[in-house]
Design a protein that fits this description.
Elements: E1 2-7, E2 16-21, H1 25-38, H2 51-58, H3 62-75, E3 78-81, E4 85-88, E5 112-113, H4 126-139, H5 154-168, E6 177-180, H6 183-196, E7 201-205, H7 210-218, E8 222-226, E9 228-229, E10 232-233, E11 246-249, H8 263-276, E12 279-283, E13 307-312, E14 324-327, H9 333-340, H10 348-359, H11 362-388, E15 393-395, E16 403-406, H12 413-422, E17 425-426, E18 428-429, E19 445-448, H13 458-473
Parallel strand pairs: 5-17, 7-8, 7-11, 11-12, 12-13
Antiparallel strand pairs: 1-2, 3-4, 6-14, 9-10, 13-14, 15-16, 16-19, 18-19
Length: about 475
Amino acid sequence: MVKSWATSAETLGVDLHLDLKGAGLRSGLMDALREAVRGGRLTPGTRLPSSRTLAADLGIARNTVADAYAELVAEGWLTARQGSGTRVAQRAAARPDRGRVHRLPTRRKPTYSLMAGSPDLARFPRAEWLKAARRALAAAPHEAFGFGDPRGRVELRTVLADYLARSRGVYASPERIVVCSGFVHGLMLMGQVLRARRARQVAVEAYGLDFHWKLLTDAGLRTTPLSIDEQGTRADELRADKGVGAVLMTPAHQFPIGLPLLPDRRAAAVDWARATGGLILEDDYDGEFRYDRQPVGALQGLDPDRVVYMGTASKSLAPGLRLGWMVLPESLVGSVAEAKGHGDSCGVLDQLTLAEFIDSGAYDRHVRGMRLHYRRRRDELVAALAEHAPDIGVTGLAAGLHVVLSLPPGVDERGVVQAAAWQGLAIQGLGAFRHPDANAAQWNGLVVGYGTPSDSAWPGTLDALLRVLAAVGA
């Protein structure tokens, strides 16, 4: 019997895939760990996950992992000390092979990742999702497997209207919702619609995602940045540029700076839209995850006829589902549906499964559980920084899946990112998110995606970050 299992970069920080026969789990795990050390993916001093955590991730017995660790300790590959955990031994290095041709060094794949934008994929609710999929498939009418309504399945649009109203304060009805393949697909559709409306320019926040700006540029639209200060995005700047036909914003939790759009600035954005006939594209990418209070309601509730609300399952569940939604002003529904095409281009079974997942209450339970999980992660990060790197500030809301670390004056974030890469840690500086036409950089810091690592990878990832930051303060 062949047993296959894999660990991803979020688990050990290295990619392992083994096809094991019979009772070869222990030896297979040992071989994979030796190879990871030889190849430099697990560097000396790297902290490995506990046997309990790794066994849970791999779906094997804890004793199997514990025995593999013990054997590798005996061989000198690993060290184990009370209170320090299991680590790669300092002397565990590849032996030179004199018969091989030496090649130029290549960039190693990161051992750890704190890249922002991804949830903890190891916590995808597989069992509950499978139950929902079975129920949805059994109840699906025959016509569901046809081309369908370009707005998406009515079952999903109906439960989304109810969920968004009670959880995000969105004014929604099934008729005003269009299902899309994630936020990027929705933004592409809106780019087409804006061009058809003769818009030529879209305001964006000075810090954001460059591929979002590129999508708008590819649609024939020019993007102009709005400044961000300590109180959030400067919505008042919209009135200064008469050519702007729409604005793309992240009001609940500005990405990546992490600040909310304050009430007076929310009002300024809506007043601008009403006065000019412009549109606000609201990216509510992680609005469900607020840890110090109840989540702030969506901007769309202030004026449903001027705001396009855009949500996604990418942060709450997984980006691989490719499911998102737009709650549109009534006047735009037909145009967006036409831009999407004559049939539903999103997977019907996934739509029906998500509808059942939400309707059964499983989605609410999952979000509550993940909210606690990410809050613990953030609290552990903040506490560790306070103890080991007190010169590093933490900015932004207690929300979402990332945090911004402000660096001391005179410390170049690019140098820190490079130093992290040498430690096997993938991380980004704020400069990577700055619009090319924005004013000179006023923010200097690191964007830490604490939602990305799995439970087994988290302790080692946090240790790696602290080592990098300790060098900054040295």
